[in-house]
Each structure stands twice: as C-alpha cells, then as structure tokens.
Amino acid sequence: MQKDILYLLLMSINVIVFMQVILLIELYLKFNFQINWYFLA
C-alpha cells in the first residue's frame, strides 16, 4: 500500500516537472523568436 502511494506521488511530481519544462521551452522559443524578428525588421 505504501509503495503505491509513493509511486503515485513520484508520477505526479514527474508530470508537474514535465509541464514546467515544456512551459519554459515555450517561453524561451517565443522570446528568441521575438528577438530574431526585432533584428530582422
């Protein structure tokens, strides 16, 4: 029983971390795109 709870906790932490990483990548790409666009314009 304890192992199942621990497993679920780890899974939820992984999902949160994964979502945060995706968000950071999106922000980074958006920021880079804006800078490139600014220099090209």
Automatic annotation (TrEMBL):
- Enumerate the UniProt keywords alphabetically: Membrane, Transmembrane, Transmembrane helix
What is the protein named?
Answer: Uncharacterized protein
Q: Which residue ranges traverse the bilayer?
A: 6-29
Q: Give the domain of life.
A: Bacteria
Q: Please give the organism.
A: Klebsiella grimontii
